[in-house]
Amino acid sequence: MRRCLGLGLGLLSLSALSGCMGPVAKAPFAGRLGSGQVGSLLGPFDGQVLDQSTASPLTSALVVGTWAFEEPGGIASPESSYSVSVVTGSDGNYALPSLPAGRQFAGLLRRFTLVVYKAGFVGYRSDLRFDDRSPRHDFVQRGNVVRLDRFPQSESHTKHLVFLGSGAALRGAAQSEIIAASLELQETAPPLAAEPTEPAAAKESH
After folding, report:
1. Residue 95's closest CA among 152, 148, 45?
2. 121-166: per-residue pLDDT in tens?
3. Exposed site from 25, 86, 130, 138, fewest CB < 10 Å?
4. 97 closest CA partner among 136, 67, 134, 59
């Protein structure tokens, strides 16, 4: 028990000490919209994904939740993150479980990030906005509503993928966009310089 208490010294908040659970930082988001209560980085998380232009539910949208850890002294732990993913149903709803108990020993739980991806739409991050990279402050743990805009034809797929981040689930869902980003990079790459050729007169003099 003393070891558990020692891990939590100096933190903004502590998780329950049951089972010697690791320390948990204070969540930067609310539990529910308008509740006034601070959410929990541990989860669970749920919400709905909608088409911004029609307000219709978006089915088969990929939702990825990632928990990030670090040692209490601020050093990244050997196992620095853990992710789970689900896809939305016909009603556009998603539900992510709480962080599994077996993953709560990886160090200080510093943050949770939710990413939503649907081909043909601008993706969503719970911590940042795509248009200006400003911090997002409207994410909530329960009953979160994600509204996705259609992807503009003039927008860069490369920029979009960098914004969304990495991960096996995201790479699998965004294969067509990865190809489009590769084509963008090829188009913007400087042309290779042609190899110099010897003048005809020089060749004859050899």
Report:
1. 45
2. 999 999 999 999 999 999 999 999 999 999 999 999 999 999 999 8
3. 138
4. 67
pLDDT at 103: 80
List pLDDT tens digits, range 16-66. 434 456 789 999 999 999 888 999 999 999 999 999 999 999 999 999 999
Rounded distance between C-alpha atoms, residue 63 and residue 108, angstroms: 24
pLDDT in tens, 130-142: 999 999 999 999 9
Predicted local distance difference test score (pLDDT) of residue 4? 43
